[in-house]
Amino acid sequence: MDKEKIDKKDHILDVAERVFSEKGFDGASTRLISGEAGVNMAMLNYYFGSKEGLFLAIFERKISSFQDILQNLGNDDSIGAWNKMEKYIEMYGEKVVNNNCFQKLLYQEMSMNRSTDLSYKLRDMLMKSITELDKILREGIANGEFKKDIDIPMVIAALYGTKNYIINTPMMSSPLLGYDINDDNMIETRLKPQIKSFMKNLLKSYLHN
Amino acid sequence: MDKEKIDKKDHILDVAERVFSEKGFDGASTRLISGEAGVNMAMLNYYFGSKEGLFLAIFERKISSFQDILQNLGNDDSIGAWNKMEKYIEMYGEKVVNNNCFQKLLYQEMSMNRSTDLSYKLRDMLMKSITELDKILREGIANGEFKKDIDIPMVIAALYGTKNYIINTPMMSSPLLGYDINDDNMIETRLKPQIKSFMKNLLKSYLHN
DNA sequence: TTATATCAATCAATCGTTTGATTAAGTTTG
DNA sequence: CAAACTTAATCAAACGATTGATTGATATAA
Predict the structure, then answer these.
(1) A177, B30, B33, B162: least buried by Cβ within 10 Å?
(2) Which residues is B146 bridged to in the sheet?
(3) Considering only residues 36 to 95 of chain A, which have any Cβ-Cβ distance to chain B shorter than 8 Å?
(4) Which of residues 1-20 of A touch B (CB under 8 A)?
(5) C-alpha B111 chain-centroid distance
């Protein structure tokens, strides 16, 4: 029954991820989480030790899948920097729809500005993607593809910030964009292409000579 | 003693604004807030009725000062759309440093995606600024200053999202930018000029023909 | 039997809130 | 002026409710 156990733990983590992202860590009670997951309250402590242990487990589960996704993109010499940027934006835009709850939760935790092991681990994880993007931008400057005076940190902030703004504040972005951001179908058919297209156009005109 | 009473209420609101922005609504206990403010716990209920009343009072106080700041900018026919954009970015960038805690709190509340009176009121408040920006962009398209195929909602999202990303996740943006985002002096001397300059350059190249 | 899984019941701690007493400050009255 | 009254401000203490966590009993499966 090892399979079922893992499935049940995974189910709890799925539910907890959603509830935490909706209510925040303090706002989500263990009773609510266990209730929504359809398990006894004591199961949370049985499986994860504590509420914080459950919270950490949500991130532990995802961190591995976030590794090496954007890896070895900056080390490829066969394509130009702008091509790499486009690939980065493509892959990045693809991850927008998936892991919606987790992205929200991740950003929420980073906003707390806590000096915890989790925060540092998440920062390091995110920094890996950012470093890759930084590498691409530097390469583009070095080989003359991009202007010399572009503001690399701000480009990165614009890319990540724009996405976060849209998915974290659907109450603003939905009327702004004209469709429901909470609708998975809309995200797939409209938001993803729109973000990708806009980011490419926006950065193309800014970066290029 | 009306003066002193207002000052004390204002002091409590200042402290509560900071504590709420740091810990979130549920994470900030009334004991902590009253303790940090140096007042008896019962004073919070005496002045504001309840914890939620205190929370609301924080926004009520600021909402008025957010009105008409970006007003009648879009109705001025004497200057071009791009000039208006620059003015908007200037004013907007200026508000970055001020109301740092409040901006964080505001974004936090909007991220909760709650269907409360407060959320709707805040949305309407923010929409006023956005509508003004929208008007400027449409005007620029209409008079040929800007390209016809610019993505207006995404431009708005990029402008607001970039700022939010930087001030809400100092743990990321500080190492990224190379200076401490939590330092008020650094915000004034470096961040504000950098955001303004970048946003102008970024949008100029994207919007213009 | 042994080990794991699940449950209702309960724990101490903390939460937001209320209370009743006390102080401070004005206002009225004699 | 001063004594009496009124109102607002402040406080320590306690309230009931909810929190995260634990217990010991029970069920299940190897």
Answers:
(1) B30
(2) B208
(3) none
(4) none
(5) 14
To the nearest whole angstrom, how far is the Cα of B44 from the nearest Cα of chain A? 21
Residue A106 CA to its chain's centroid (Å):
7
The b/e string for A53-73 (b: 16+ C-beta within 10 A; e otherwise) is ebbbbbbeebeeebeeebeeb
Residue-wise pLDDT tens digits, B45-72: 999 999 999 999 999 998 877 765 666 6
d(C-alpha A23, C-alpha A26), whole Å: 8
**Mean pLDDT estimate for chain A:** 90
Of B126, B162, B177, which is closest to A172 when you measure between CB atoms?
B126
Question: Which residues are within 8 A (CB) of A209 and not within 5 positions of it... i.e. 6 or more apart?
Answer: A144, A145, A146, A147
What is the rounded average pLDDT of the residues A195-205? 96
Name the nearest CA neighbour of A119 among A28, A25, A48: A25
Residues of B in contact with A158 (CB under 8 A): 158, 161-162, 198, 202
Model-level pTM?
0.91
